[in-house]
């Protein structure tokens, strides 16, 4: 990616002054490079910038140069589907709101800082959309390879953090409902562009099913639904009147979670990243999406119910600790009924995002635009839906979702 010309010393100097609450900071130089390889991010441009700076002591700048590594997230300004999607879904507005208002309110409730996210140094929407975040890799956090997926231990830690964020959002809503106004729509916003993407995903899956012996019937069922497949997926994410709702992350796939480990290799901690798709609705949304996109095949085969049980137990424990009346929380049976009711959301995630997750690394044509428009056998859509990794996951997921009766 080309580094924007507006990445100036003044921009980062102002960010550091705000973050350190110190007006006497002077940036001497910057070093910027791509934060992730091509084909690993789809809604914004990501850079890693090392900032070299000095602080003033009394009347003089220190001779000692300090440095800090930051992740810079900015809107793509070259046109095309990537920019259109960001605008239609208000992605930067939502993430600015998350770091500017929502997370401070959540951390006030939790009484512990930055256990869910990175710190935000700076955010602005004008004249350019930009968010500057601490570089979690400097704290020992890293993203796992997206092809592999998470084992049960990693899944447990994810849903523990998920339950913590969800529970805190319940308390936050009680205190100030206005803090969640921005999150009425998530990744699958009901607009023309998103509908084109989801429809292309279903078409890619239907075509792939015709090539998988024994799985043709799922393609036929999905094809027979026609427009209903779109409507059922979009309806599955809607809030129910009087239902139990939380602030969902909304985009819990492998690349949006970072993990740290002890020296002996044991799992230590994790953080969520990328808060552009948050949606205030049933917690089943995060669970379906996470299970579809981010778990190992063996977890999908053997441990889905265990993960759901662990999440529910953690949610109840957190809400009880926060002195929330558990009479207002769904019973385990009601929770499972709601999860089942929203199963089409999991299928929609599997038919769209999972194809990106299992695609080969280094494909520079990995984009929403090519999923929508390129139907050639050499194109990204054909590759995404016909590679072996994707097929193996869908061979379990298709019967799983069909067992809910959602394809009938």
Percent strand equals 5-15%
SS-derived structural category: alpha+beta
The counted number of beta strands is: 10
Cα distance spanning the termini: 45 Å
CATH architecture of the domain at 140-402: Alpha-Beta Complex
| CATH domain class name of the domain at 140-402 | Alpha Beta
Radius of gyration: 22 Å
| CATH overall fold name of the domain at 140-402 | Aminoglycoside 3'-phosphotransferase, Chain: A, domain 2
Number of helices: 15
**What composes the largest sheet?**
6 strands, antiparallel
Pick out the low-confidence regions: none
Index terms:
47% helix, CHK_kinase-like, EcKL, 408 residues, Kinase-like_dom_sf, six-stranded antiparallel beta sheet, alpha+beta
Can you summarize this structure?
It contains 15 helices and ten strands. It has 408 residues and is an alpha+beta fold. Helix 3 packs across helix 4 and helix 8 packs parallel to helix 12 (343-357).
List the helices and strands and how they pair.
Elements: H1 9-20, E1 25-34, E2 45-57, E3 60-61, E4 66-74, H2 81-88, H3 91-110, E5 120-124, E6 130-134, H4 152-175, H5 192-209, H6 216-225, H7 227-236, E7 246-248, E8 257-261, E9 267-272, E10 279-281, H8 284-294, H9 297-302, H10 304-321, H11 332-341, H12 343-357, H13 368-373, H14 380-386, H15 388-402
Antiparallel strand pairs: 1-2, 2-3, 2-4, 4-6, 5-6, 7-10, 8-9
Helix pairs in contact: 3-4, 4-10, 5-6, 5-12, 5-14, 7-12, 8-12, 12-15
Pfam families: EcKL (PF02958)
Domain CHK kinase-like: 131-321
């Amino acid at each position: 990616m080309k580094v924007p010309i507006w990445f100036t010393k003044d921009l980062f100097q102002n960010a550091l002054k705000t973050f350190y609450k110190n007006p006497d900071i002077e940036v001497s130089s910057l070093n910027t490079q791509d934060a992730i390889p091509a084909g690993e991010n789809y809604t914004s441009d990501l850079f890693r910038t090392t900032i070299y700076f000095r602080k003033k002591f009394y009347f003089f700048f220190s001779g000692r140069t300090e440095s800090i590594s930051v992740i810079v997230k900015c809107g793509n300004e070259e046109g095309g589907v990537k920019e259109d999607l960001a605008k239609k879904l208000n992605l930067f507005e939502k993430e600015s709101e998350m770091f500017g208002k929502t997370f401070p309110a959540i951390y006030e409730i939790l009484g512990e800082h930055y256990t869910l996210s990175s710190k935000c140094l700076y955010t602005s929407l004008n004249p350019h959309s930009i968010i500057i975040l601490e570089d979690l890799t400097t704290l020992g956090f890293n993203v796992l390879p997206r092809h592999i997926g998470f084992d049960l231990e990693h899944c447990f830690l994810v849903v523990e953090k998920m339950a913590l964020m969800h529970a805190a959002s319940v308390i936050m809503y009680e205190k100030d409902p206005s803090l969640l106004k921005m999150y009425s729509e998530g990744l699958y916003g009901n607009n023309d562009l998103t509908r084109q993407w989801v429809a292309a995903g279903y078409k890619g899956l239907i075509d792939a099913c015709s090539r998988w012996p024994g799985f043709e019937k799922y393609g036929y069922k999905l094809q027979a639904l026609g427009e209903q497949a779109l409507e059922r997926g979009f309806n599955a994410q809607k809030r129910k009147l009087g239902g139990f709702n939380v602030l969902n992350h909304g985009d819990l796939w492998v690349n949006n979670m970072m993990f740290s480990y002890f020296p002996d290799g044991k799992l230590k901690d994790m953080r969520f990243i990328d808060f552009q798709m948050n949606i205030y609705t049933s917690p089943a949304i995060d669970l379906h999406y996470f299970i579809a996109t981010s778990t190992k095949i063996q977890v999908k085969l053997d441990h889905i119910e265990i993960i759901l049980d662990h999440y529910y137990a953690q949610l109840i424990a957190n809400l009880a600790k926060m002195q929330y009346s558990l009479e207002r929380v769904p019973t385990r049976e009601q929770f499972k009924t709601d999860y089942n009711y929203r199963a089409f959301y999991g299928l929609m995630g599997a038919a769209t995002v999972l194809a990106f997750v299992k695609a080969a690394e280094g494909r520079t044509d990995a984009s929403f635009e090519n999923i929508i428009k390129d139907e050639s056998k050499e194109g990204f859509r054909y590759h995404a839906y016909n590679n072996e990794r994707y097929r193996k996951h869908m061979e379990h997921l298709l019967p799983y979702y069909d067992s809910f009766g959602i394809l009938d």
